[in-house]
Amino acid sequence: SSTMSLSEAEVQSARGAWEKIYVDAEDNGTTVLVRMFTEHPDTKSYFTHFKGMDSAEEMKQSDQVRGHGKKVFSAINDMVQHLDNSEAFLGVVNPLGKKHATQLKIDPKNFRIICDIILQLMEEKFGGDCKASFEKVTNEICTHLNNVYKEAGW
Question: Could you state a single Gene Ontology molecular function term (predicted)?
């Protein structure tokens, strides 16, 4: 049974939107993280090796920032591939949420920040329709991650 509130048509258009931005996973993932660090400097505190970096330029060049940007996009890509299979979707979301809650102790509000920046980037690059068709997916992702955090006693 599906925990997802997306119709088949919504899944298809969300995948189409995601593919556009995922083609350049490393660059776009990096842009998203650099924006997060710049607009929400407190988020840098989770990444001890990013602390000394002040300029967006410096961050963009960093192999560690680029590597993590790519990682974030790969994880979302795994979720997007399983939007029509809640068991498989949760198989990606649950361990990821648990790790961020218990090991990394990352505030779950940061997932929302990342999702909002992805939507913003989609709109800038591909227009409002692209953003709109992915919005429900980001809500699903954040809702499920928040549930994992609650179960972990966050």
Answer: iron ion binding
Residue 103, token pair as written in the block = 């090991």
- C-alpha 122/C-alpha 94 separation (Å) is 26
How far apart are the C-alpha atoms of 25 and 20, rounded to whole Å?
A: 10
Q: In the numeric block, which tokens belong to residue 152?
A: 């972990």
Q: Is residue 78 part of a domain?
A: yes
Quote the pTM value.
Answer: 0.93
Do 91 and 51 touch, CB atoms closer than 8 A?
no
Is residue 2 included in any domain, yes or no? no
Angle at Cα 125 formed by Cα 123 and Cα 130, nearest 5°?
45
DSSP character string of 67-102: HHHHHHHHHHHHHHHTTT-HHHHHHHHHHHHHIIII
Contact 9, 89 (CB under 8 A): no
For the chain, how far is it from start to end, CA to CA, in angstroms?
27
pLDDT at res. 4: 74
Cβ contact 44:37 at 8 Å: yes
Kindly report the average pLDDT of the chain as a whole number: 93
Q: What is the dihedral of CA 86, 92, 97, 103, to 10 degrees?
A: 150
Is residue 133 in some structural domain?
yes
